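Could you help me review a protein record that somebody else here produced? My question to you is simply how this chain folds and whether the tokens agree. Thanks in advance; the entry in question is below:
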Amino acid sequence: MKYKLVLLKPVSDADGFGEETPTYKEFRTVAAERVKTSGSRSEEVGEHFPDYRAEFNIRDAHPVGENWRVKQMGGYEYTVTNIIPNIDRGMKTLICERVNK
């Protein structure tokens, strides 16, 4: 496992008006294997946006949920959109989309 991912857990914080805004706190750093990366361009309301996706395998012992974020050390930050269990290998495949900041 070549890559290091920082798992970021969503935490809801309420502001002075009671509005909840999600923030992400570092949960733990895990070793990962990058399975696939892809890039494309999407169009929304007449504007072009880059669309990057990645898939990572991590050990199934690490708790992670959908809508969490992962940050690749020395790379980009992604939102976990789907988790596919791979019971035979004792892994989870994280399907991720890059966060546009």
